[in-house]
Design goal:
Blueprint: E1 8-17, E2 21-27, E3 40-43, E4 46-54, E5 57-63, H1 64-69, E6 80-84, E7 104-113, E8 118-123, H2 126-129, E9 137-140, E10 143-150, E11 154-159, H3 161-166, E12 177-182, H4 184-198, H5 203-213
Antiparallel strand pairs: 1-2, 1-6, 2-5, 3-4, 3-6, 4-5, 7-8, 7-12, 8-11, 9-10, 9-12, 10-11
Catalytic activity: 2 6,7-dimethyl-8-(1-D-ribityl)lumazine + H(+) = 5-amino-6-(D-ribitylamino)uracil + riboflavin
Subunit structure: Homotrimer.
Function: Catalyzes the dismutation of two molecules of 6,7-dimethyl-8-ribityllumazine, resulting in the formation of riboflavin and 5-amino-6-(D-ribitylamino)uracil.
């Protein structure tokens, strides 16, 4: 589990084509200082398993499914990436609960610069728009952010100077793809309500049960 607070702006050193997968070699001295084989590191919001580490670099195998469903397939040697280690038990939840399981990709549509921040507009798949709400949380390329405006086919976020300087979001331009992970709590709520409806139970029924328990 991650928090969406990027620890390091890393770099893709090399990508080896394995046929049905790719082996990424990435540079990240901070996130690799205590990493070992089998550990997890989020790369642009995608949870990857460390194969080996050496000299501030680590390798990770990326399956074809991940390459097809995320923006990792668009990376090349020299690409900058957001890196984050999993949150330790007892650590601070600085962002929100992030699984590192990308729900889909969006496209950066527009950047609107301000005096101290930027507003960024991102188009998203229709299937994800129902999970995105104004002032709710969303993960963009592994960065935990608050939604400013939410529409059926896009949302906007506000980026402070720190986010612009320390993550890939300061480098993205119009047309670039980004990984999106919606708030997992919204998906669980939708699933639970859907099961309740299928069983003939709605929220009013639940309220009545609570009254009976009293």
């Amino acid at each position: 589990m991650f928090t969406g607070i990027v620890e390091e702006l890393g770099e893709v050193v090399a990508i080896e084509n394995l046929g049905d997968a790719s082996r990424f070699r990435l540079r990240g001295p901070l996130v690799t200082e205590d990493a070992k084989h089998g550990d997890s590191i989020a790369v642009n919001g995608v949870c990857l398993t460390v194969v080996e580490t050496a000299d501030g670099e680590f390798t990770a195998d990326v399956m074809a499914e991940t390459l097809n469903r995320s923006s990792l397939g668009a990376l090349a040697a020299g690409s900058r990436v957001n890196l984050e280690r999993p949150m330790a038990l007892g650590g601070r939840l600085g962002g929100h609960l992030v699984q590192g399981h990308v729900d889909g990709t969006g496209t950066l549509v527009e950047r609107i610069p301000g005096e101290h921040w930027e507003i960024v507009k991102i188009a998203l798949p229709a299937a994800l728009s129902r999970y995105v709400v104004e002032k709710g949380s969303i993960t963009v390329d592994g960065v935990s952010l608050t939604v400013v405006d939410a529409a059926d086919d896009y949302f906007t976020i506000s980026l402070i100077p720190t986010t612009l300087a320390l993550t890939t979001l300061g480098l993205k331009k119009a047309g670039d793809p980004v990984n999106l992970e919606v708030d997992v709590l919204a998906k669980y709520v939708e699933r639970l309500l859907g099961r309740g409806s299928a069983a003939g139970t709605d929220l009013r029924d639940l309220d009545e049960l609570k009254e009976m328990d009293r």
